[in-house]
Amino acid sequence: RGAFGFWAQPPGHGAEVVGRAQGRAQGASLALVGARGPAVVIQQRGFAKKTGKGNAHGAVLNEDIRAKEVRLVHEGETRIVPLKIAIKRAKDASMDLVCVAPEANPVVCKIMDFHKERYQKKLSQKSSEQERKKRTIGGVKEIKMKGLIESHDLGVKASKIHEALMKLHPVKVKVTTNYRMLQKRPACLDELPERIFQILEDQGTAYTVSRQFRLQNSLEIVLMPLKPS
Q1: C-alpha torsion sign, points 134, 140, 141, 146
Q2: Which of 9, 20, 179, 227 could form a disulfide with 13 if both were Cys (CB 3.0 to 4.6 A apart)?
Q3: How many angstroms separate the CA atoms of 52 and 55, rounded?
């Protein structure tokens, strides 16, 4: 019996257990050598070597990077340098050394102003989200509302529908509700289309109903604009 507590063969058969360490990255393995058969190797899963402790945003910066050398990408050049030299270059440029590929060997790092890059990325994401909301879905303007919408709010939604139809945009009206709404007013989904159509008619909107589809808790109406004659 060896240090790991495994038997290669039952006692009395001359078996021996040989333990072999392969380092933290590969884990430990056990070679069980029996007297009557070939060696059996059991791989014991280990833990990958940590690159370093990340900050609050999950990035590993500067002295938190744990590596002797890094593959430094900076100003269009890539070279392998000791970690201390890479950190010094980043500090000389008043920037941060950021680990961008911790699984590589050696790890890949870039010199950048991390907080500025993060701020610009956040602005870009916010701008993209705003543009996505403004975009139409397949050329169709989408208007959402609840089944128990109040008269004033419905008037505001209907005005948006009118504006889109006047610009010759098809409009998809999506109405959602839930069990509590239906308990409070069971006919809300049946009444809402007529309320919308009445407001549009009062505004002189030229349109036609392309589709009206009702599910148990939702309603979808597609309105097509009519070109002025």
Answers
A1: negative
A2: 9
A3: 10
The b/e string for 178-214 (b: 16+ C-beta within 10 A; e otherwise) is eeebbeeeeebbeebbeebbebbeeeebebeeeeeee
Nearest alpha-carbon partner for 150 in 174, 179, 185, 202: 185
Q: Tokens 């380092």 correspond to what residue?
A: 23
Strand partners, 65: 52
At 59-102, the pLDDT tens digits run 787 888 888 888 888 888 888 989 888 888 888 888 888 888 88
- What per-residue string of b and e applies to 123-147 under the rule 16 or more CB within 10 Å gives b? eeeeeeeeeeeeeeeeeebebebeb
